[in-house]
Amino acid sequence: MCPELLSDARLYALLLKYDEDLAKSTHSEGCPCGWVLHSAKYPRKPAGAPVRLPDGYDRRLSFCCARDGCRKRRTPPSLRFLGRKVYLGVVVVIVSAMRHGVTRERAAELVASVGVSRETLARWRLWWREAFPATPFWQRARGILAVPADAADLPASLLSRFEGADEATKLVRFLDFIKPVTTAASGNWERTLMVELRPAEDARCADRARSRRRSKRQRDHRAG
What we know:
Blueprint: H1 9-29, E1 37-39, E2 42-43, E3 59-60, E4 63-65, E5 73-74, H2 89-97, H3 104-114, H4 118-131, H5 136-141, H6 156-159, H7 167-177, H8 189-196, H9 201-223
Antiparallel strand pairs: 1-4, 2-3, 4-5
């Protein structure tokens, strides 16, 4: 994963647009009690971006039920924020994925550019190695991978499963895929997981299945 993506202002604007679209979808669904949702954004202090962020990045999009006696909060998933982490999701993912395959000097430059301490890096490694694999989302999602992602090498092992025209596209697809872990109210992700985004090897898996069916028909034909 290319660290230069951290300086791409267009990427941050795109992720904000994704979050706004997710918020619109959540708002249109309304509250489970049947009432409408009112905007209830809450402040965030996004850290780690080496470029100026678009207006609105200091707010997490969220809603609250309009009915007295309910007032239940609904916070849509996010491609910008990785749960409660202070650092932006792209920073956590890219820095964590760059742990391997770069020189110590290059890694030090990367860490310095986003202001991440060694203690924070250690917490991120622990989260990817232990907390993320234990989430209900990952317990379900890993089952759709034709080739399992090595839990010891997350997030890099999962990032490699995504295809795209460029590194930014792959990263956005990755963030979209894992977005259920960014909120406690992730909606019907279990139903949509299989059709939302496909890791790269899913297409190859389908090709292999078609090839097996073709071979079986040929064997049946010869046997007949």
